[in-house]
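Q: Predict the assembly, please.
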Amino acid sequence: MDQSHAAQKKSGTSVFFGDAQGRLLEPSPFFRERARRARFRDWRFLWWDKTERVKSPFSTTEKPTPFQDVTSYNNFYEFGTAKSDPAHNAKRFRSDRWAVSIEGAVAKPRVLDLDLLKTAPLEERIYRHQCVEGWSIVVPWIGFPRSALINLANPTSSAKYVAFQSLYDAKQMPDARDAGIPFPYLEGLRMAEALHPLALLCFGLYGEVLNQNGAPTRLVTPWKYGFKSIKSIARMRFVEKQPPTTWSLAVPSVYGFYWNVNPEVDPLRSQATERRLGDFFKRKTLKFNGYAEQVATLYDGMDLRENV
Amino acid sequence: MTLNRIISSRGAKPSMFLICLLPALVLGWRAWSQDLGANPIEYITHSTGDWTLRLLLITLTVTPMRSVLQLPQLIRFRRMLGLFAFFYGCLHFLTYVWLDKFFDTKDILRDIGKRPFVTIGFASLMLMAPLAVTSTASWIRRLGGRRWQLLHRLIYFSGLAGVIHYHWLVKSDIRLPALYGTLLFLLLAYRLFVFAAKWRERHRRRVSELQPQPT
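A: Predicted assembly structure:
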């Protein structure tokens, strides 16, 4: 222990990079830079390490989009509306406490925090991720199935939907005022969607802890357009009625509640094709972003042209 | 005046030419060094679109600047600025047709018909085309000054269409389109103001002509 302390002092790294046994882990340059910027005060570095994650059978075999692209091309309006803004403006973003408040129709409302996370079985899932703007990426997310969290939350039978609210810290997110949409961001899923094994509660990507991609924790629903995968979750409320969502409130003529990836439905722009970042030619967009086999049954008997 | 002398100097026009070419050169350089970000095609589309609108507005500032700053020689740059706006507009359109849609005519036509922001952007460019064609001295002669001037007022509508195009395509953050819109409004308001002043003057003169003249 003394030795490792001496090594830390010498190298300038921090105790936060130690694993459970007190062994020092060698942080990647990215990680070191992030830690330096956060001045070691960020809680997220307390528990995150770069050990191998459990691989998931849900992962696609497609080539992941480079880390640089995934972290420098983001729609995270709290940190500015240009794609390159979040990478710059979220550099010093600190979310001191990971805590998601679980409310509404649950056996016992509670705040889930870091302690839960430490025991969470994090796994890596490589998902296709598509934006409604016509571009897509492949991301190796790290997280755990949302259904595991919901089981922990223990919702009652009256819970039909889950409403999400994002963390909004006006001090740390001054650009949010000019985004043109109100914050905190609101999203929602039907219970069956939230419980689907593909739905992921995400904490990191490419082995690193999340930052401009939705720190401290975000939702990933790969069969829906990206804006449905709410970033920086602060509250989860189990409710009976379909909850309002930010974009459907802002532009009701265009945005509905479901917004599954669907090449045939295009009130905003043509959704028939998408450009995978890094490709020159566009590719045909698949229904449910290629996850039809897993999720299509969720929408049996629903007209997805009507229920956008 | 020194400024007027600089503007009238022999090197002024070539210098302005190079300045106007700079955004294209920077874009070319960034493309060459693979520095266009994660979505290069979107970057090129936005960059050429931005410069089209900026140069359109700059072209529209020439006339007010001439009288407000008393720099009549600025007229030397007007045609070049307008042509550069058209040039960047064409690059913008070419990026869309070639890099974005890859000459998928069916898709492009559907886009122009179905997406209002594409329709109006296309209209903006189409309004600029006759102005670019008739920008030469021989065309001014052929049309006659008055008619030529009347035709070239199309630039007001092109600018308006350009700003609306921008406003319709942004998702929620309307700061930049609002800024361009405000500038355009001021530039057009100036012209209206000048027109009204001239009209009043003419009216006053006509009235005074109708007064019985002392003999």
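Chain B has a mean pLDDT of 94. Residues 139 and 145 of chain B are 9 Å apart (CA to CA).
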